[in-house]
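Question:
Now give any protein.
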Amino acid sequence: LPPRSSHALPACLTELMTDPASDIGDFYPTEFALDLNGKKFAWQAVVLLPFIDEARLTEAIDDRIDGLSEDELRRNSHGSVLMSTGTCHVLLPHFQRAYGPPPT
């Protein structure tokens, strides 16, 4: 995610993206090259960003994980997969064959 999307993260993690002095601030450069690759417009370009060091990212998050609320910790865990569809959707019969009828 770009720093402007840091609002999508829990509050205890946003600073990692927005503070240039954070442990992983170099993962979020404010200036970067664009590869137009034959395209005419900047919005069509490929943004050339540095690769991140997964170990550093994980360590930075682990240092702040205690700041997550109980609800945020729950949302950050693996759970059941849910699939839903309308009663008229073309995939409903396939779902019912694979997973059984919907609960009543």
In short: The chain has one domain: 3-99.
